Amino acid sequence: YWPQDPQIPWAVAGGVTAAQILPGSANLIGGRSTVVKFYPHVRSAAAAHFPGAPDGMKMACGENPKRVYGDKGGPQTRMGNVAGHRQAFEDGKNYLRTLRQYEEEVERYARGERDEAPEPVERNFGLETIAGVIEGDIFVHNHCYRADEMLIMMSLAKEYGFTIRSFHHAVEAYKIAPELAAAGTAVSIW
Question: 146 near 160, Cβ under 8 Å?
């Protein structure tokens, strides 16, 4: 995010006061998003962060990852997309388990139940983000076009204990409106 983008004053003049900045829509796990407020004279993304707004994580499924990464060693099918998502969340769940075990061992050491301090867990920022999703601290925004893909992603979310905050593009969301409402999932459409 570039807070000095010359388009920001135009957005502000049009009444926009804040924005969610998301990574692209072709990666299975695209990365972190942030919500910014258009403060005047801000010089850094951190200074523009909207107070109290939770971070997000952008995901994509279906055609975009398949089209962009299919010939580059990425998933070539929709089934491959789901396998990649499932593996990412399994890795995140295992990372979270390792972090919790480490914290328990630190507490045991502090109580004198261990002679040596435990070795710290090696940081993995990608897995920390997924762990934050599983714990409910980071909201998921999922780029997805088709109704069947949205249902698959909602099933995956339920399996790993999180809610998809919003499906982006979501051109077939009208086909599954009751399911989206029951899950508390919004759509952000064109």
Answer: no
SS3 state of residue 74: coil
Express each pLDDT in 53-88 by its tens digit: 999 999 999 888 878 877 777 788 889 999 999 999
Q: Using CA atoms, how far apart are residues 75 and 88, in angstroms rounded to an integer?
A: 13
Angle, alpha carbons 153-159-163 (nearest 5°): 60
Q: How far apart are the first and last CA of the chain?
A: 22
Model pLDDT for residues 14-30, shown as the tens digit of each residue: 999 999 999 877 889 98
DSSP H helical ranges for the chain: 8-13, 45-48, 63-69, 78-110, 125-134, 147-160, 177-183
